[in-house]
Design goal:
By secondary structure, the chain is of the alpha/beta class. It has two domains: 13-150, no CATH class; 159-428, Rossmann fold (3-Layer(aba) Sandwich), CATH 3.40.50. 37% of the residues lie in helices and 23% in strands. It has twelve helices and 15 strands. The protein has helices at 13-17, 21-29, 52-60, 174-185, 197-209, 224-238, 261-289, 310-331, 360-364, 375-387, 398-409, 411-425; strands at 40-43, 65-66, 77-79, 93-101, 104-116, 119-129, 132-139, 142-150, 165-169, 189-194, 213-218, 243-246, 292-297, 335-342, 392-395. Strands 2-1-8-7-6-5-4-3 form an eight-stranded antiparallel β-sheet. The chain has a seven-stranded parallel β-sheet with strand order 11-10-9-12-13-14-15, sandwiched between helices. Strand 12 (243-246), helix 7 and strand 13 form a beta-alpha-beta unit. Helix 4 crosses helix 10 (375-387), helix 6 runs parallel beside helix 7 and helix 7 (261-289) runs parallel beside helix 8 (310-331). The longest helix is centred in the middle third of the chain and has 29 residues, at 261-289. The chain is globular, with a radius of gyration of 23 Å. It starts with 12 loop residues before the first helix and ends in a 7-residue tail after the last helix. Residues 1-7, 34-121 and 151-158 have low confidence and may be disordered.
């Protein structure tokens, strides 16, 4: 007989967190297998069944983004994007194979060249209910923990983007492009706005060819008039605007003393006033609707000190402060405000950045940019967090979240290490 308050047929992640380990074993044995659908998140609470830690993890740690292709059993090598909170967090490649385990067909995830806590790991996954899957992780041949997969994110937020209208600035390339593609995959109509009109048209065409819905428009975010015209036209044509992703921005690197006032102004015009122009244009419309969501792209540099990127960090701190300060004002009026703080990603963003008096190639290969995140993965994680209305959304390499955590916990230590970074980076400056 099921334990008290434990469902006979689990249908959600929370149901699974209330089961004991023997109950999970039985459930797993009787589970079915099939390829995973898209849009997955992980709930890790059942790694510690029946404990306070398990309840906390099961409720809050659902940041891992799973895409359908990762579970197509096609032997394709893919990068490990799993949550740093999970036993599966490690560097390596994944290989997906069909397999037979415990006498039943299973989806086998083989972590090739991947080590966690000193041992190779793999897992097997079985279907428990519609949209709910139970996995069992192994280290070597020994079963370790159970974990849950669900495309339910939150039951009340299923289809969060379906049928919605989203404007994405800076959507022609890089992270903005991945946001537009992911929004379209989730059923939104996406208006791609960028100063690169040709790039906008290419992305919109790609989305429409795949069966999504997108349109392209040229936009200079520094022009308040252009932004107001875009929002007015969107509301007139679509009848609503549900999301504005203020994503356009530029980066400038180098020492403050080497960067001209004109370049400082250019960064602020795009990174700060570009965001302000978007908010001024869309906020009144969303207040009239009584709903809407504004998502501003900042950076990890908008949360921590970033020497050799002073004006970029200053502009991104402004975006973070603007977003977190406006959020409580807007919430009472039905409008949600979020800010994204990503690490460096594998996009052209920093490749095209101006870096006065630095060897650009050496800078890109330096310790500051040695690790870069997958923008497609970051986009999926971002949209999951936006759907949960998370205030500050930190995405990127695991070190991003860790650095921010320690800066909040012991800021003096992080600040004391910054001069060492400056000393090291000055070695690649171009000598006069």
């Amino acid at each position: 007989m099921p334990s008290e308050n434990r469902p006979e047929k689990p249908s959600t992640l929370d149901d699974l967190t209330r089961l004991s380990k023997p109950e999970l074993e039985k459930l797993f044995t009787n589970g079915d297998t099939e390829n995973m659908p898209s849009g997955f998140t992980a709930g890790l609470g059942i790694a510690f069944p029946g404990t306070f830690l398990g309840r906390i993890l099961g409720k809050y740690v659902r940041a891992t983004s799973w895409k359908g292709k990762y579970f197509e059993a096609d032997r394709k090598q893919i990068r490990n994007i799993l949550s740093p909170f999970s036993i599966k967090a490690a560097r390596g490649e994944l290989r997906i194979d069909d397999g037979i385990l415990d006498g039943k067909p299973s989806i086998v995830v083989d972590y090739t060249n991947t080590i966690a806590f000193g041992l190779p790991i793999r897992d097997e996954i079985r279907k428990i209910a519609d949209g709910l899957y139970l996995g069992r992780a192994f280290q070597g041949s020994k079963p370790t923990v159970f974990f849950a997969l669900s495309n339910q994110l939150n039951p009340e937020k299923s289809g969060y983007y379906s049928g919605k209208v989203a404007v994405v600035t800076g959507g022609a390339s890089g992270f903005g492009r991945e946001l537009t593609l992911e929004l379209a995959r989730r059923g939104a109509h996406v208006i791609i706005a960028d100063i690169n009109e040709e790039g906008c048209i290419e992305v919109a065409s790609e989305i429409n060819t795949r069966g999504g819905s997108a349109s392209a428009v040229k936009l200079d975010v520094c022009s308040a008039d252009e932004f107001c015209a875009l929002i007015a036209k969107t509301v007139e044509g679509e009848g609503q605007i549900d999301f504005l992703f203020n994503n356009a921005g530029i980066a400038v690197g180098g020492e403050f003393r080497d960067i001209s006032p004109e370049l400082h102004k250019k960064v602020c015009d795009i990174n700060i006033y570009g965001v302000l122009n978007g908010i001024h244009a869309v906020y009144p419309k969303m207040l009239e609707q009584g709903s809407g969501q504004i998502v501003n792209t900042s950076s990890i540099s908008g949360l921590i000190p970033t020497p050799l990127g002073v004006i970029y960090a200053a502009s991104k701190h402004a975006v973070t402060g603007l977003s977190t300060s406006l959020r409580p004002e807007a919430a009472a009026l039905g409008v949600k405000i979020n800010v994204i703080c990503p690490s460096a990603m594998r996009t052209p963003f920093f490749e095209v950045a101006e870096t006065p008096k630095f060897d650009h190639e050496k800078l890109l290969n330096s310790i500051m940019f040695k690790q870069k995140a997958d923008p497609e993965v970051c986009a999926a994680k971002t949209l999951n967090a936006v759907a949960r209305n998370k205030s500050i959304i930190v995405v990127g390499i695991p070190g991003t979240w860790i650095t921010w955590f320690y800066y909040r916990l012991i800021p003096g230590v992080i600040i004391s290490l910054a001069p060492l970074l400056v000393k090291h980076m000055r070695k690649i400056k171009i000598k006069d």
